[in-house]
Design brief:
The structure is a single chain. The protein is an alpha/beta fold. 31% of the residues lie in helices and 18% in strands. An 8-stranded parallel barrel has the order 3-4-5-9-10-11-12-13, surrounded by 6 helices. β7 and β8 form a beta hairpin. α1 runs parallel beside α2 and α13 runs parallel beside α22. It is globular and about 75 Å long. 51% of the residues are buried. The structure holds NADP nicotinamide-adenine-dinucleotide phosphate and iron/sulfur cluster. The site of NADP nicotinamide-adenine-dinucleotide phosphate has 25 residues, from α18.
Length: 678
């Protein structure tokens, strides 16, 4: 392995018998296309778009080696020769662009979502409704055969190698950790017995496929669950993997059932590179680092300072298929950064839908966007510079239209400009930075501080009008709503108002949760999303790794003020938050000791505070301020006028079109798709 100071992100990685052209690995992502109709053709386009833009090595989404190992009953498995042909669609296009591609073999074990699941021992994962039975010794033999068979078929399909998924709490990880391995035979008990299964799989694959086939092992370096592996065991296992002729060790962080966020937006950037660095010091094969790496500069620094030999980025390749090339060319400002929201990728996968990306709706839908140039260039006016208007403007300008954006505020971004002020949501700054850069680059005319009236547009020479005027906050009809104690969430965030020590929040949707987070901190306070040590302390991650799983007692921080979060419904608050992040927000409320009251009836507001009925009893919350987060209404005023006064095509998109459950994913998708049609 090369160990000189001159190694850069674009220095090839020499594996002896083969070379990877640079140190950028596109991490494994299940896209949902694996199981979709015509999915492999679409997957090939998806991978091609990334391969032609300089990625070094692509790892496919996890593919099961047998039926028991599937993630769900219709999950993809590679076990039969007739399946090879569809995989060749992908390997061919990737190789055409000089990149390499490895197939990830993932056996779900007790994380499978079907009744046929098996694990090291009989057990039920907290994230699956099904109980796994203990795999028999005979079935273990068969499973080793199945992994080898999948690897053989992968080689036939043209893959450069395989990645064995040994982390995130899946089947192999379930054998490695005493948490889930209670076996009494040669595959359980001692450390040597627990690591036997993965070593037998690797040795069998090497025996059958020879040396010239890349084997990557995704090693769980931090289990982040009770009775996980100890640091000593992780190191000893890494050394055994090296002896077994594994080519590359990839980093895995946290089991899926761990109650610690590992990839969400509130996780600090590069939060876990330290553990890859520690493991790298113990072995002599390349180590890949991963999790919350989304910046080109960071990726370069990681390699330059020899923290790891390769950098894995997964979601950043959904957000921007060209990220690797842009890093190579130093065009950092052109990168559409992954903001780690999970909204259009992982949350979609959990709903059994095809993944995409909030900031790039073309991801995994490449075949649907074919009109790259406009048939006839038009002059278009976009009214409103929120996510819908901006994404329309950028896509339309790329196609050759002349775009003018009118924005009533002195800044762009709409709801994103508010979201970026929430602690833990700083990544929204990146999308606004990207929008700003593209406006300049594409010569889009941006007119700020301009409150448009239809009379001004009526006789203008625009050919088409796009109304992306957004939303207005809903003001509930509560007696005393005009009281000085009442503040809208927009005013709170826009004007950065300093509120009193006791605050009630009306509305426990996404914005209510965000406002809770905002009010929990004081201005100038060190924020956990920007400070790794603070994040580790709050969530109980032990960098000293004194205990199994690298856990320590969590030290959550109480909110800086007394906060009541209220909702009329009796259901769980934040019910519609994302599947993969909602639990973090709800857990955060508990950590901060926010007082949540559901089933509330609002009576009135006066100098004494907010009068409510809760559990049939009248109560006064003697708060200093009341923040209204009661949803939104569409701002359609201009569009309605335009429909009667303007004789040219008018369109309405984003929150202006539909305020109910307005979300940026839909707004951006609508903007990009409309522009693509014109
Ligand atoms: P929302 O999710 O629809 O929540 C609105 C809240 O206001 C509900 O709790 C509702 O509960 C209450 N409400 C509605 N009408 C009311 C009335 N007349 N009087 C009093 N209370 C009323 O809307 P949002 O919080 O504004 O969020 C907008 C969208 O952005 C949502 O789709 C949300 O999921 C998304 N978002 C997500 C996140 C995130 O994932 N972290 C963050 C921000 C926004 P009751 O009717 O029961 O009182
Ligand atoms: Fe990243 Fe969000 Fe896009 Fe997923 S949806 S790739 S987390 S920006």
């Amino acid at each position: 392995m090369q160990k000189t100071n001159k190694i850069d992100l674009f220095t090839p990685l020499d594996l002896g018998y083969t070379q990877i052209k640079n140190r950028i690995l596109m991490g494994s992502m299940h896209t949902g296309l694996e199981e979709a109709a015509n999915g492999f053709k679409k997957l090939a386009r998806f991978y091609e778009e990334r391969a032609k833009n300089e990625v070094g090595l692509i790892i496919t989404g996890g593919i099961a080696p047998n039926f028991q190992g599937r993630l769900h009953p219709f999950g993809h498995q590679l076990s039969f020769p007739w399946q090879v042909k569809k995989h060749q669609l992908m390997t061919k296009v990737v190789h055409r662009h000089g990149a390499k591609i490895c197939l990830q073999i993932l056996h779900a074990g007790r994380y499978g979502y079907h009744p046929f699941i098996v694990s090291a021992s009989k057990s039920k994962a907290p994230i699956s409704p099904f109980k796994a039975r203990a795999i028999t010794k005979l079935e273990i033999k068969k499973t080793i055969y199945d992994f080898t068979n999948t690897a053989k078929l992968a080689k036939k399909a043209g893959y450069d190698g395989i990645e064995i998924m040994g982390s995130e709490g899946y089947f192999i990880n379930q054998f490695l950790a005493p948490r889930t391995n209670k076996r009494k035979d040669k595959y359980g008990g001692s450390f040597e017995n627990r690591i036997r299964l993965p070593l037998e799989i690797i040795s069998n694959i090497r025996k059958k496929l020879g040396r010239n086939f890349i084997i990557i092992f995704r090693l769980s370096m931090l289990d982040l669950v009770e009775e996980g592996m100890s640091f000593d065991e992780v190191v000893r296992f890494a050394k055994k993997l090296e002896e077994s002729k594994v080519d590359i060790i990839n980093t895995g962080i946290g089991w899926h059932e761990a109650r610690i966020p590992t990839i969400a937006m509130m996780v600090p950037r590069n939060a876990f590179t330290w553990i890859s660095e520690r493991i790298k010091k113990e072995i002599n094969i390349p180590v890949v680092t991963t999790n919350r790496i989304n910046s080109g500069e960071d990726a370069k620094n990681i390699i330059r300072s020899q923290i790891a030999d390769m950098v894995s980025m997964a979601r950043p390749f959904l957000a921007d298929p060209g990220i690797a090339l842009k890093i190579k060319e130093g065009r950092y400002e052109d990168i559409n950064t992954c903001i780690a929201c999970n909204q259009a990728c992982l949350d979609q996968i959990f709903k059994n839908k095809v993944a995409s990306c909030l900031v790039n709706p073309k991801a995994c839908h490449e075949t649907e966007f074919v009109n790259s140039t406009a048939f006839k260039s038009e002059n278009m006016a976009v009214i409103g510079a929120g996510p819908a208007g901006l994404s329309f403007a950028i896509e339309a300008a790329k196609k050759g239209h002349n775009i003018t954006i009118f924005e009533k505020n002195a800044y762009i971004g709409g709801q994103f400009a508010l979201a970026k002020k929430i602690p833990g949501k700083e990544e929204f700054n990146e999308t606004i930075r990207y929008f700003q850069g593209q406006i300049k680059k594409l010569n889009i005319k941006l007119i700020l501080n301009k409150k448009v009236e239809i009379a001004n547009l009526k006789d203008s020479d625009f050919d088409r009008f796009i109304f992306s005027t957004g939303i207005v906050p809903r003001m509930p009809e509560i007696k005393g709503i005009d009281h000085a104690k009442v503040v809208s969430y927009q005013d709170l965030l826009n004007k950065e108002l300093i509120l009193g020590k006791k605050v009630a929040i009306i509305g426990a949707g996404g914005i209510g949760f965000d406002v809770c987070e905002y009010l929990s901190h004081n201005p100038g306070q060190v924020l956990p999303a920007l400070n790794r040590e603070k994040f580790f302390n709050i969530w109980g991650i032990d960098k000293e790794y004194k205990r199994r799983g690298a856990l320590k007692k969590a030290s959550p921080e109480k909110a800086m003020r007394e906060i009541y979060l209220l909702q009329r419904k009796s259901t769980k608050p934040g019910l519609h938050l994302g599947k993969t992040t909602g639990w973090i927000h709800r857990y955060g409320l508990k950590q901060k000791q926010i007082k949540v009251i559901t089933g509330v009836e609002y009576r009135n507001i006066d100098d004494r505070g907010l009068h409510i009925i809760s559990n049939g009893k009248k109560k006064i919350l003697d708060v200093d301020h009341i923040v209204i987060c009661a949803g939104q209404k569409s701002d359609r005023r201009l569009f309605k006028q335009a429909q009667t006064l303007i004789k040219k095509p008018c369109h309405i998109i984003g929150g202006a079109e539909k305020a109910l459950e307005i979300d940026a994913k839909r707004a951006i998708d609508q903007g990009v798709r409309l522009a693509n049609q014109l």
